[in-house]
Write a structure and sequence with these properties.
Layout lengths: L16 H11 L4 E2 L7 E10 L2 E11 H11 L10 E9 L2 E8 L6 H13 L6 E5 L4
Parallel strand pairs: 3-5
Antiparallel strand pairs: 1-2, 2-3, 4-5, 4-6
Length: 137
């Protein structure tokens, strides 16, 4: 099994659910981490339902603190808008369905990754676009 940052076969980046699922089964992984957890952001890939069919989620999972810092770096003014938790579902591409999940966590670790995957897999009304929830931080 390849560790985050190591060379991976093309199947690891396929947007085809059957190809990517086979890769996960063959490597014994429930999801594919593309970088090390423990910080404020992680890139990963996993499968789950969307609009009645199975897709490959090409996911960037970040903390609200990380997202707020990124927004303030790109903001024209000194004031940073209040940050809320969100799910942002983009377009289906060659690598799967684009997904950004931002949650109010101190860091992204394996237990939080597992919980986020469960949340995405069980959320019945997922649709494209950015969906904010919770109180502003």
């Amino acid at each position: 099994m390849a560790k985050p940052g190591q060379q991976r076969p093309a199947d690891a980046f396929s947007g085809d659910v059957s190809v990517f699922s086979r890769f996960l089964r063959e490597t014994g992984q429930p999801f594919l981490l593309l970088n090390e957890p423990g910080g404020h952001a992680v890139q990963l890939r996993f499968t789950g339902p969307f609009n009645g069919r199975e897709v490959v989620w090409d996911c960037r999972f970040v903390t609200c603190a990380y997202q707020a810092e990124r927004c303030s770096e790109h903001a024209a003014s000194d004031s940073t808008p209040a940050q809320r938790c969100f799910i942002d579902i983009g377009q289906l591409g060659d690598r799967g369905m684009s997904l950004v999940v931002c949650l109010d966590l101190p860091r992204i670790d394996i237990p939080s990754i597992r919980k986020m995957i469960i949340m995405i897999r069980h959320y019945k009304r997922l649709r494209r676009g950015r969906h904010e929830f919770g109180d502003s931080l």
